[in-house]
Design brief:
The chain is mainly alpha-helical and 461 residues long. 67% of the residues lie in helices and 1% in strands. The longest helix is centred in the N-terminal third of the chain and has 25 residues, at 53-77.
């Protein structure tokens, strides 16, 4: 499919603005979709950092506000693509790991929290310098079709375990599968499939919102809709800067945060690459440079706002691919709404009460698009023996790393624990090494020329 054909399949391209009513609907769809990603992060992270109930509620509000602000800055001045910023799984995974290590190192949790503020700020400064120096552009040549295809597929596989557990009601604190959750998830998936494949054009474009609304309504009689925590909430609460205290410096924490910030750049590259495939438009190197610089700024804001580091997520491309709406205007409205929610605790509490199986079900359906994009990249390969080894070893090693028990990595340095404990990152690094260092294509015999029949098939004659 050519870039022009892809653009023709979009209902609204980047520069096109939908009517006001549809703009609001699309913005609300972005909002609900993003909240489904964000809802559990403040709870899990807050408990790990030993925050009380008020501290967790405040963290949730700051997460909404600064995530919305980071997304707005990216769409206006950064990569300028409709890709939402979201708390990075690697970032809050590192936070939780450090929180578990702190007692054994004799470090108080209060001091760790202020160390993390400084670590985020300095990691952000490093990313701003990288983006401003345009160094990220030279790395793009590393992302060939075997790498990009593997990145997208491993990213989907990395999330699939969490998504399926959430659909079945077997999340943290609830190890057993819930039959009600299974039924609710099946209905949501069926509704999203129907809306995406059989609905009218406008219904297809809001399939995610239709699925969430249907699941939320069904959750009420099933008694699976959690009540919104209204008690003790004011109408407006401005986000506090350095809510955990004045930033403090710890060399180990700073090094860990800087390395984490560099590693999650792969998520940014994967997200922009996925969006390129979705909208049929190749991004320039300057787009990546600006994206990196403003991702660094987002980390600086996260440190000042005492929240977790963010990164552009590939789910944005999945959303655009499903809705066929790439317009910047609804996305900008969505980011402003996110920031408003960070100021209005009652509204944020209500929207964050989406039943967990509903959110996970919608996310799993959306990531079907990511798997498709990865397979499409593989189709660009010759798929000879060399490609089999590069792709096969990458997928097998990356997927296998996802099943590695954390205890097995306990004796390794922190950096190796973070890499080997993340199948997506481990697989990506393995693929780059195989593709460019150990099994580079130039060391192998030239591939045979296309036959005339193949050339005709490729040209459509």
């Amino acid at each position: 499919m050519t870039d022009q054909e892809t653009k023709q399949k979009l209902l609204y391209d980047l520069q096109e603005n939908p009517p006001a009513a549809r703009t609001l609907v699309y913005a609300l769809q972005w909002l609900v979709f993003t909240l489904a990603n964000l809802a559990v992060v403040p709870l899990v992270l807050g408990r790990a950092l030993q925050l009380d109930a008020a501290g967790i509620a405040s963290l949730a509000q700051r997460t909404l506000f600064f995530t919305g602000l980071a997304s707005l800055l990216q769409i206006l001045f950064g990569h300028r693509l409709p890709i939402m910023e979201s708390p990075s799984g690697m970032w809050w995974g590192v936070f939780i790991t450090l929180a578990a290590l702190a007692p054994g190192l004799g470090q108080s949790m209060a001091l760790l929290r202020t160390d993390l503020e400084m670590g985020l700020i300095l990691a952000g400064v490093v990313l701003v310098l990288i983006g401003s120096s345009r160094l990220i552009g030279s790395a793009l040549k590393l992302f060939t079709p075997p790498v990009t295809g593997s990145v997208l597929i491993l990213l989907s596989l990395q999330l699939s375990g969490t998504l399926v557990k959430g659909m079945l009601g077997a999340g943290p604190g609830s190890p057993d599968v819930d039959l009600r959750a299974m039924f609710l998830s099946a209905v949501v998936v069926a509704v999203v499939f129907w809306a995406s494949l059989k609905g009218r054009p406008f219904v297809r474009s809001v399939a995610v919102l239709v699925g969430i609304a249907a699941g939320w309504l069904l959750a009420l009689p099933l008694q699976m809709a959690p009540p919104a925590p209204w008690a003790g909430m004011g109408l407006i609460q401005w986000p506090s800067l350095f809510a955990w205290g004045r930033p403090t410096f710890d060399a180990g924490i700073v090094v860990t945060c800087v390395l984490t910030g560099l590693l999650v750049l792969s998520n940014l590259v994967a997200s922009v690459l996925a969006m390129e495939r979705t909208i049929g438009r190749e991004a320039s190197r300057r787009v990546y440079d600006r994206g990196v610089a403003f991702n660094g700024l987002a980390d600086i804001l996260a440190g000042a706002g005492a929240t977790v580091g963010v990164v552009p997520v590939s789910a944005g491309a999945a959303m655009v691919g499903m809705t066929r709406v790439a317009s910047r205007l609804p996305f900008m409205v969505f980011t402003v709404l996110m920031m408003i929610l960070g100021l209005l605790p009652p509204v944020g509490a209500f929207l964050s009460s989406i039943p967990v199986p509903v959110g996970y079900s919608v996310l799993l359906v959306s990531f079907c698009q990511m798997v498709g994009f990865g397979l499409r990249d593989y189709l660009r390969l010759k798929l000879d023996n060399r490609d089999f080894y590069v792709v096969g070893f990458t997928l097998l090693f990356g997927t296998g790393a996802m099943f590695m028990p954390p205890a097995a990595l306990a004796g390794l340095p922190a950096l190796f624990r973070y890499i080997l404990g993340n199948g997506f990152i481990a697989g990506m690094l393995i693929c780059i090494l195989l593709e460019h260092v150990f099994l580079p294509a130039r060391r192998f015999a030239a591939r045979p020329a296309e036959s005339s029949a193949e050339k005709k098939a490729a040209s459509g004659n």
